[in-house]
Records
---
Amino acid sequence: MSLLETRGLTKRFGGLVANQTIDFRLEKGELVGLIGPNGAGKTTFFNCITGFYRPDEGRVFFRGRDVTGWSPERICRAGIARTFQVVKTFRDMTVLENVMVGAFLRHPRPAAARAHAEAVLETTGLTHLADVQAGGLPIAYRKRLELARALATEPEVLFLDEAMAGLNPGEIQEAVAMVRRLWEQGLTIVLVEHVMEVVMPLAQRVVVLDYGQVIADDTPERVAKDPRVIEAYLGERFARQAREG
Amino acid sequence: MAILVLLWSLLGLAWNIIGGYGGQVSLGHAVFFGLGAYTSSILLERWQVSPWLGMLAGAAVAAIAALLIGWPTFRLQGHYFAIATIAAGEIFAILFRNWEWAGGAVGIYLPLIRGDQLVNFQFHETKVPYYYIVLVMALLAVAVTYALERSRAGYYLRALRADQDAARSLGVPITRYKLIAMVISAVLTAIGGTFYAQFVLYISPNTVFALMLSVQMCLVAVLGGLGTIAGPIIGAMVLIPMAEYTRVFLGGRGGGLHLVVYGLLIVIISVFQPAGLVGLLRRRTRPTPPPAMPTPAEEGIA
């Protein structure tokens, strides 16, 4: 039994099919990259799994349980946490308070939630910013804070939606190291990313979406050589670079 | 005046729980005020039930109303929620205006009970007992807010005010917590309603279900400072004397000049102190130093 599985997942917006009969399996302890050109349906897929969208067809199973159509809060309680592509920091709360909101899920008492949140800040290297208003942080720290907040809910699976977008190369390196560390500690991670250079060395397996469909699902090396992927994603990009260069 | 300021502190604090901490701007809180006033008054007038018991009954009725209003309206966001609560407020006002058994548009005159005893919740010799009663009520609201601020519910409310989707992604059942906040807020508001009825000894739909009441509860909290304990108290201390003095000095000249001046003062406060009057205090006492922000590059070296 896979940890997480979607069967024939389909989501339409009016006439547009954002996700078309996606069959996806995630095993415990995997680190999977989900890539695809803009508008391929990656975020929609995330939203269907994490309860923000209700799929039109198909089912989502988590630990063998049908969780299709569950609310986001219930999905989170079940053990699936996520971050957002556009960061959603609680701006007028401090960094520690932001993480405490996540920690409260499994630690209803404030003192326990605070202790757990402090531990999470420690592992994510945010301790020195604990009392800073989160709204004033630079984007790299807000992205990291969002990761910390999600971790504080003690998930089994973590979905990261473009956690590296908008970061400079040094910041990307740090973020990659952190994701790898979390994975080594036993967390199952799905990484949505535009930056191929991030996903390829990090992921064990890469799933490629194009026009809402899975066009490849293999090791990074083989995906990078897949003609359909090059056509749909890399090809388009190299073609553009060639034009601009 | 002190009694009025305390009553409005209570109402502002009550409103602040859902409107300030929860960020759900309700303009229908007069419903809870009116239900508190009417429940205790009807019980007293018809069945000679002690206003203290009536106050508890009124709080219970208001709590139920909060659930009934909140359940459908909390699906709405932002301005639409505010509009829906205005509508709810007007529905109750019309209902009570036409409900002959509850006094209709004329309202209810409360039976006078001489003797000035605390159990009767009526004092004719002196107003001082009212002052202490409303003081205790306002302190109760402060205590409730203080406890809420430090509880899981307090954190959850601030989180869902900032971003509902992010809160849900962290396992916060947002509708449940909005309803909890609404019920607490309604109970405290209803207590204020019963106090008002016992203080004035006459209630009518036009006075206790008035939209203006709802607006003023919101104003007190917003001008004072949302989502803080001191905010609504400061708001009441500034706003209520301001309203009274402009009325005393300018009300007699007709043409609603006092309302114009009152409105102008509100505009001035909101332009210069958008974070509320509490922001003034904060700026004075705690000049927050900009936090030292190590750049990622520096961290990399270290």
Note: The two ends of chain B are 62 Å apart (CA to CA).
---
Amino acid sequence: MHEMALAEGMLQIVEEAARNNGARRVSAVWLEIGALSHVAPEALRFCFDAVTRGSLAESARLEIVTTPGLAWCMPCSDTVPLDRLGEPCPRCGSYQLTVAQGDAMRVKEIQIA
Amino acid sequence: MCTTCGCGEGDTRIEGASLAPHEHQHEHQHEHEHRHPDGTVHTHPHRHEGEHGHPHPDGTWHSHVRGGGSSHGHDFSPAAASLGAAHAAGTAPERIVQVERDILAKNDAYAAENRHYFADHGIFVLNLVSSPGSGKTTLLVRTIEAWQGRTPVAVIEGDQQTSRDADRVRATGAAAVQINTGKGCHLDAHMVGHALEQLEPAPGSLLLIENVGNLVCPAAFDLGEAHKVVILSVTEGEDKPLKYPDMFRAADLLLVSKADLLPHVRFDVDEAIEFARRVRPGLDAILLSAETGEGFDQWLAWLERGVAAARTRRDENLEALRRRVAELEAELAGGAAAPGSRA
């Protein structure tokens, strides 16, 4: 499934960053997964554990920080919280929303040795 | 999947062949053509691991990867702060390194290369996505027939296995390349880049990419297309857009297919479009049937507009390059002795 492809992408990023910093081991990875992004954090965790076996990130601690969804509501002319795609503005009920935050999937930091 | 370049490890096949020249202990390169704003073109190999950028003689730096990993300030670091606090002096010399890379950065980079290639050649590219069985391939075949050679048409087909779809397309006379993903559930930009090497669509072409039938995974993967077109047939439920919001949100056009079956199913077209517009405000929608040709006027007109726009953009780019070349030639003719001229 595509979480595997994403986990492999993460591993590439982590390995590259570690190499660029002369590290031989990655002990922790901080990930930002938005509430409105394409992936379920726990599915990604499962795949990450599988994919890092035998790599320099094997057994690395994975810290996932979820960022909440925010959207710009046209009628309200304001940013409002959005928990899930397809839900209306919690204030005025309109669907004229543009996602402003919460769809990111980013490797933020790594801890290396 | 190959963990170095992300290609299928013997899984992905294009026209039956594994991706060459990929070895497994990987160091492989791609010839990559790169055009500078001044119109010069140079080719250079670039590796998939390590450096993704290179310097130009004029000192500017060209990065091949968006969000390229350099450290920069950001206001998100609660975990780092807590780590710092927990880290006692005298323990192993571990340190935190900022990464700030989008997980999809690699695919996005390949997609950007594809997009650049399409822009250079004035090719209008669509990524067709849907559940399996929505009628994508039949729609493609019917579209190619109705297009009647207005411009060349090329197709990239994606399926786990078989070349049946590419064969059906080729029977219309259009060029097609089949990508088999093996166990993979979506096409990615790297596969499409390779398929383009074989397909070599003519400038000004209409290129249709039929993704693997899957309403979940392809949403995350940019292929370099101009638009994702999502196809929902009347034999599915109107509430699909609410159940699979990622895909509908990623689309710029909704095709409601198999309209000829409406008398036999309880499907509310308006409601389906309304649901789709909840997750993707302003989504264009066309009701059509590959059987009867209903809606094809609108669909072909939509395609024509896209093809014309791609051609215009390419013409404008070429015109800008010609102007720039003329400027430089005038400068050279003016001579280096003129005050204020660049060395």
Note: Residues 155 and 176 of chain B are 5 Å apart (CA to CA).
